[in-house]
Design a protein that fits this description.
Elements (H helix, E strand, L loop, with lengths): L4 E5 L4 H14 L2 E8 L9 H7 L4 E6 L1 H14 L11 H20 L3 E3 L8 H12 L4 E3 L1 H4 L4 H10 L13 E5 L2 E5 L30 E7 L2 E5 L2 E2 L2 H14 L4 E7 L5 E7 L1 H15 L7 E7 L2 E7 L3
Helix pairs in contact: 3-4, 4-5, 8-9
Length: 315
């Protein structure tokens, strides 16, 4: 009789790579991996190859950037979605999309179970679990991190013993999640709010001291509540967000540090880099404050050291 199949949301990192072996060994299941490009912006070559080397029976890659921008980020812009008035829910938005593709593959492959790499402490586990349950309550959910009892040292030991490649960056104490809308950095010494945020956590944004003295100007055109053009030139959603990410990052815009309430009752210090979200949401909120007429309105707003001119193109 063939083994049961489990579909794993696979990032290519150490944890989910170990999970492939873990699911094979502890559960005796055949593992199928699913990886989504939601605009992480990192080199993605090698993720699929790594999965095959770990012995998966099938692997799926989805370029979900356009879908993520249009169906997830854009509604969040219309809603001015800011958790606790601060965090533009960037990681949160990607989870239902990733989980829905995992379910899609599970149904296609006739798999009995699905798996994710979230810990038992954060919000991401809830997003995956709820999406799985909503879309297909028959699927068994396996979350190996909630089961295994490793500390970092024994985890790396186990990985090496089982032929799981251990990246050199494994020393990073942070849990980092990236997508088109933002970069979340948490864990490690960030969990001590009495200590300053170390400067090595930032990757998308420069320190204000290193930002150019000269401002940049950008004109953002909105149509029906979502951004459609920059400086009068139409852009597709992904491209528009990526351009504003670059521009904002260059000016040190979009760094967030706050105390966050987690679903399970923890309160933790969390940090984010969200340059595009900061610019677009500010522009959108200002736009909503305007008294709109049928005529074109133009106004300026200032975000840190950058001026943006926002044009509303009419109702
Ligand atoms: N605290 C944020 C949230 O709940 C970010 C989670 C980021 N996840 C991660 N694995 N680093 O949405």
């Amino acid at each position: 009789m063939p083994n049961d199949k489990v579909v794993l949301a696979y990032s290519g990192g150490l944890d989910t790579s170990m999970m492939v072996k873990w699911l094979q060994m502890e559960y005796g299941m055949d593992v199928i991996t699913v990886n989504l490009d939601v605009g992480q912006g990192k080199e993605r070559k090698g993720i699929e190859e790594k999965a095959w080397k770990l012995g998966v029976v099938n692997h799926y890659t989805f370029d979900a950037k356009e879908e993520f921008a249009t169906n997830f980020i854009f509604p969040a812009i219309k809603a001015n979605a800011l958790y606790m008035g601060t965090y533009p829910v960037s990681s949160s938005l990607s989870r239902p999309l990733i989980a829905s593709k995992v379910v899609e593959v599970a149904e296609m492959e006739d798999a009995r179970a699905v798996a994710h790499g979230c810990t038992g402490k954060g919000n991401d586990q809830v997003r995956f679990d709820l999406t799985f349950k909503a879309l297909n309550p028959k699927l068994k959910i396996i979350a190996p991190v909630r089961e295994w009892k490793f500390d970092r040292h024994s985890q790396i030991q186990w990985a090496k013993e089982h032929g799981v490649p251990v990246p050199v960056t494994v020393d990073s104490p942070y849990s980092i999640d990236e997508n088109l809308w933002g970069r979340s950095i948490e864990g490690g010494m960030l969990e001590h709010p009495d200590k300053m945020v170390p400067s090595d956590i930032w990757d998308w944004t420069v320190d204000v001291e290193d930002a150019p003295d000269e401002p940049d100007y950008v004109k953002i055109g909105f149509h029906k509540g979502v951004p459609v053009s920059l400086d009068g030139i139409d852009h597709k959603p992904v491209e528009l967000i990526q351009k504003l990410k670059q521009l904002g990052g260059k000016h040190g815009i979009g760094r967030i540090e706050h105390m966050e309430d987690r679903v399970i009752g923890l309160k933790t210090r969390e940090t984010y880099e969200v340059p595009a979200a900061e610019i677009i949401l500010n522009a959108h909120q200002d736009l909503e404050k305007m008294v709109l007429t049928r005529h074109q309105k133009m106004f300026k707003y200032q975000v840190d050291n950058m001026w943006a001119t926002v044009v509303y193109q009419g109702l």
